[in-house]
Amino acid sequence: MSPLTRARALQELRQTFARAGFETAALDARLLLLSVLCIPATALVTDPDVPLTAGEAERLAAATRRRLAHEPVARIVGEREFWGLPFALSPETLVPRPDTETVVETALDLLPDRQAPLLIADFGTGSGCLLVSLLHELPRATGLGVDLSLGALRTARRNAEANGVGKRSLFALSHWADAIAGGFDLIVSNPPYIASSVIPTLDREVREHDPLLALDGGPDGLEPYRTLLGEAKRLLVPGGLLAVEIGYDQAEHLRSLADAYGLEILRVAHDLSDNPRCVAL
Ligand code: GLN
Q1: How far is the CA of 193 from the centre of ligand 1 (A)?
Q2: Is 111 in the same domain as 216?
Q3: What are phi and psi of 258, to 5 degrees?
């Protein structure tokens, strides 16, 4: 039998995933193969005919079985790109979603001075993707990542260091801002915002692999917003900015909450699918 080359492994994997009905079959195949072989994407173009070793073929088969059992590719390879930066994942962190980049974009757009020595807080930091991306763009800013999960904080710290902002990052274990004093110029959060009763209906890849703590927003999915908006005035400096991710159908609820807590909505920003995805106050 002819040896299994990189090119043939990629082609076979793509077909396997397409037959299994995965919409992102080609991308899934590429990411899994690159991760198992520990090679950069360019190596598939420059050296497609290198044969896989027996060990590599075995690891690829194991990764393929996990994917066919509907484990997300990001979980299998243990990493996901966000804002052009690599983020390590752990079972305690949500897989960063492209839609969440709307929060980074909105915050950067509304900040009056990107060179200022800003103090940023990220509540429910998870992998740290919001905080680390912002610190990457704001060279003089310092940030605090807060989470209720110690495992998430460990992963976030690792991501801050790997992406060169470790010296400007602090991490703290706290239930929202219970253990946190004020003084922030910018607060960001992608809180859990799915109503508890909706969780069982979520896509299998989310329901079985993302941590419940990062998804469940209480009976109506709005509990974390009551906490964050209720605490905003205590935590922000005068004129400070709060930017939160929201569910596609929550913009009107956020308007009511902003009214109730005396906060001004500065912008409702939309994601790539044109759903309202970020509210800035
Ligand atoms: N957007 C996530 C999803 O697709 C939910 C994330 C959250 O609750 N913050 O399920």
Answers
A1: 7
A2: yes
A3: -60, -45
d(CA 246, CA 263): 16
**Among residues 280, 274, 253, which one has the least CA distance to residue 188?**
280
Beta bridge partners of 123: 146, 189
| Domain enclosing residue 31, as ranges | 6-77
User: Going by DSSP bridges, is the β-strand pair 142-147/85-88 parallel, antiparallel, or unpaired?
Assistant: unpaired
Q: Is 276 helix (H, G, I), strand (E, B) or coil?
A: strand
Q: Is 192 in the pocket of ligand 1 (CB under 6 A)?
A: yes
Prediction pTM value: 0.94
Cα of 90 vs centre of ligand 1, distance in Å, is: 16
Please tell me whether residues 24 and 95 are part of one structural domain: no
Could you give the ipTM of this predicted complex? 0.92
CB-ligand 1 contact for 107 (6 Å cutoff): no
pLDDT digits (tens, 9 = 90+) for 125-173: 999 999 999 999 999 999 999 999 999 999 999 999 999 999 999 999 9
Number of domains in the chain: 2
Q: What is the pLDDT of residues 10-63, one digit of tens each?
A: 999 999 999 999 999 999 999 999 999 999 999 999 999 999 999 999 999 999
